[in-house]
Design goal:
heterotrimer, A alpha+beta, B alpha/beta, C alpha+beta, A: 60s Ribosomal Protein L30, Chain: A, Phosphoribosyl-aminoimidazole Synthetase, Chain A, domain 2, seven-stranded mixed sheet, globular, C: alpha+beta, five-stranded antiparallel sheet, 1 helix, 5 strands, 40% strand, elongated
């Protein structure tokens, strides 16, 4: 049998085979291997971070990764943005009938690799099979331990803070959009999908006074900064010209009329901390695989909760959140 | 990107040009940037608040989405509800019709496909031989030849299931209408680089002479826009009114003769309704009889009445004529925002309201 | 009015369709509206169509205009 059938979600022999042949063999760990409906784990501290995210990316495979990479990195990053060390994940699969088992293996392989890279273990899972036509979809939930005393949150940005972006902006969104049939363009850009747990741990372990960590996924940097400005009640001022991005992201945006600040990212984070610690933070980031392009892009000040950008001519303009679906423009 | 100007020099070049513009001492002048892409460039670089006393930039009607009347979108939505596959540029997806938008029509199960090129719509027709594909064509002379080409390709391939709902507009009649408006005080035109790339800068000569208005064609990088404006101010100061081309890497006197020929093969000039301006004689294009088979109006809309009305309170009409600034509309940034646009000028990021809203200064 | 960007022709097929490179982004573009296009040439593209061939003289002319404007000590 090379395709997913309803019986794979039906609770019988096929489902048991799928679990042991694919999920157990690739994710295998003592807790998962027990095949309980739950995972029982011990945590080293009693301050934990929890997060869940569902992954529905279309197409499920894109330059630089697939939905499996996203399912692990997305939740790992959400947990890590609290300053926590992610430890355990659960994974729920919703698969369309007829989906190739070899494709499922590709997805699960990506998840296994990313989990290992991020230092997390997948301890519980679930599979459902639905009518063909859409999917595959994956939900993951994660738990991590917070070992720092810092209150890292969207509401913690303060006057005098610096705003750092840890990597190139827009790569994930452009890689995915390039595969949408109705737009169809070629790009060398690969998704930036990556687990940021190591990078964040390095910053935490260095003793930096981190105020805000946020991964600018859907809605891009513009959306994430607007959220932070509103949660913290501060003004964030960025310099457009400092935003690091690959040439291919810039050219795709110019060709199709997208704003790079609106494009989704899956492997970079906004880091906000006191300006006098920014240079040290950059040093630490640059020792990490996913922090080599880290750049200071702006600053936080007391003022109306909004995001502004310095224009080429030196005046300032508002940076708004994107309004809905990204569409190619001709005018 | 094949940038003309080295980005490393941008800061110095733009500052130098800006200082020159700011040192202007000629008579007060209102300059209309006809083109929506100029409106965006001006807003994005934050030029307006830096202009010298007496120099005003007015945003004109050169946003194709914005000047497309509400009934065109109502017709397109009607066709979607009748089951056709409607292909159009992403720009048009969120423009409010009387009741709803194409994006909402899609959410309700209708088939609406955003495309980047008219040829993508032809491809869609080939891939869906059992469905009717209607391409909603919008735009001035930069875009209309591409729709003409798509129709010719569909003709060559005998595609029975492809047609065009034509909302293409003509640039010069729109400019004539603005000048004819006694309430308008336009002192010069910053002419659209890319439309002029097709129609050629000579087109403005009779217009420029008849109205004694400086017409400077320019491009869209910050340096282009500033240079174009500087040349306009230089003309104003010296009392000249000429057509000048500050965008020679894209624009010449004749334009793209082949593209204009293609346009004339498929379309003929027709009276057209501009949102906010009204019906302009020769203001748009319609399909010639021999291409009637590709005309969605003839094929699907003959005798169909769609009930259309402009949204209440919306002053897009005044904005498009350059009579008011977007911020003078009572709905601006209140009930009409980029997230929930009321009027078409807010939907397109190159619409005057959209550009002013997204890049509003602080 | 119209987003249009310059790119370099990478390849041309028998139907006048080309692959154009916009600096790391490529797209299928129709060459039906430019005369005698050749691989390696630069074209300005709008909505999937090349509408103008850029020649190096025109590009230099633009740079020269800018240089004059910047150097001109008068207004």
């Amino acid at each position: 049998m090379d395709r997913i059938t309803k019986s794979h979600g039906g609770g019988g022999a096929h489902m048991r085979a799928l679990i042991s042949d694919i999920f157990k063999s690739k994710f295998g760990n003592p807790e998962l291997d027990k095949l309980n409906d739950f995972a029982a784990v011990t945590l080293p501290t009693n301050r934990i971070a929890l997060s869940t995210d569902s992954f529905v990316v279309e197409p499920w495979e894109f330059p630089g990764g697939n939905i499996g990479d996203l399912a692990i990195c997305g939740t790992v990053n959400d947990v890590a943005m609290s300053g926590a060390k992610p430890l355990y994940l659960t994974a729920g699969f919703i698969l369309p009938e007829g989906f190739l088992i070899s494709d499922l293996e590709k997805i699960v392989d990506a998840m296994a690799l990313r989990a290992e890279e991020a230092g997390v273990v997948i301890v519980s899972g679930d599979t459902k099979v639905v009518d063909p036509g859409s999917g595959p979809f994956i939900n993951t939930a994660g738990v991590g331990v917070i070992e720092t005393e810092l209150e890292i949150a969207g509401s913690s940005a303060k006057d005098g803070d610096a705003v750092i972006i840890t990597g190139h902006v827009g790569s994930h969104g452009i890689a995915v959009l390039s595969k949408r049939e109705s737009i169809g363009f070629g790009t060398e850009v690969l998704s930036d999908v990556a687990p940021l747990s190591g990078l964040i741990a390095a910053l935490v372990d260095d003793g930096l006074e981190l105020h805000v960590l946020r991964d600018p996924t859907r809605g891009g940097v513009a959306e994430a900064l607007n959220e932070i400005a509103s949660q913290s009640g501060v003004e964030i001022e960025i310099d457009d010209n400092l935003i690091p991005m690959e040439q291919g992201v810039l050219s795709a945006c110019e060709l199709l009329g997208y704003d790079p600040l609106h494009i989704a990212n899956e492997g970079c984070a906004l880091v906000i901390l006191p300006a006098d610690q920014a240079e040290r933070a950059l040093e630490v980031m640059k020792t990490q695989r996913y922090g080599v392009h880290a750049t200071i892009i702006g600053k936080v000040s007391d003022g109306a909760p909004r995001v502004t950008a310095k224009t080429l001519l030196g005046s300032r303009r508002l940076v708004d959140s994107p309004s809905g679906e990204l569409l190619p423009r001709i005018c | 990107m094949t940038r003309t100007f080295d980005p490393a020099d941008a800061q110095l070049q733009t500052q130098t040009l800006l200082e020159k513009i700011q040192s202007y001492t000629g008579p007060p002048i209102s300059v209309m940037e006809v083109c929506g892409t100029h409106t965006v460039a001006v807003a994005r670089m934050g030029l307006r608040p830096l202009l010298p006393q007496g120099v005003k930039l007015i945003s004109g009607p050169g946003c194709p989405v914005c000047v497309t009347p509400v009934e065109t979108f109502d017709k397109a939505i009607y066709l979607v509800e009748k089951g056709v596959i409607l292909a159009t540029y992403g720009d048009a997806m969120r423009v409010p019709g009387t009741r709803t938008t194409l994006a909402d029509a899609r959410a309700n199960g209708g088939r609406v496909e955003p495309v980047y090129s008219a040829l993508d719509a032809v491809k869609l027709a080939k891939a869906n031989p059992d469905d009717q594909v209607v391409f909603l064509g919008l735009g001035f002379e930069t875009t209309s030849p591409t729709a003409a080409h798509a129709i010719m390709v569909a003709g060559r391939e005998n595609l029975e299931n492809f047609s065009v709902l034509c909302a293409h507009k003509a640039l010069l009649p729109a400019m004539e209408a603005l000048v004819a408006d006694p309430q308008m005080e336009i002192g010069a035109f910053l002419c659209p680089g890319h439309a002029t790339m097709v129609i050629g800068s000579d087109v403005y000569k009779p217009f420029c002479e008849a109205h004694r208005l400086p017409c400077v064609v320019t491009g869209f990088e910050a340096q282009d826009v500033l240079l174009g404006l500087l040349w306009i101010l230089r003309q104003a100061k010296e009392g000249r009114a000429e057509v000048e081309n500050a965008y020679p890497r894209a624009v010449d006197a004749q334009g793209n003769v082949g593209a204009m020929k293609m346009l004339a093969t498929v379309f003929r000039p027709a009276d057209a309704r501009f949102r906010g301006i009204g019906v302009l004689p020769g203001g748009g294009y319609e399909l010639k009889e021999e291409f009637a088979h590709f005309d969605a109006e003839t094929r699907f809309l003959a005798g169909v009445e769609v009930e259309s009305r402009e949204p209440a309170g919306c002053m897009c009409a005044e904005v498009l004529r350059g009579r008011i600034e977007p911020s003078q509309c009572p709905l601006f940034a209140k009930t009409c925002t980029a997230e929930n646009p009321v009027g078409a000028c807010m939907v397109s990021s190159e619409g005057a309201c959209g550009a002013h809203y997204r890049y509003r200064g602080v | 009015m119209c987003v249009a960007v310059p790119g370099k022709i990478v390849s041309i097929d028998e139907f006048d369709m080309a692959v154009v490179d916009f600096g790391g982004t490529t797209r299928e573009v129709s060459l039906a509206m430019v005369e005698d296009p050749a691989t390696g040439e630069y074209v300005i593209v709008h909505a999937g169509f090349a509408l103008h061939k850029v020649n190096s003289e025109e590009a230099l002319e633009t740079i020269e205009l800018m240089r004059q404007a910047l150097d001109d000590s008068n207004f």
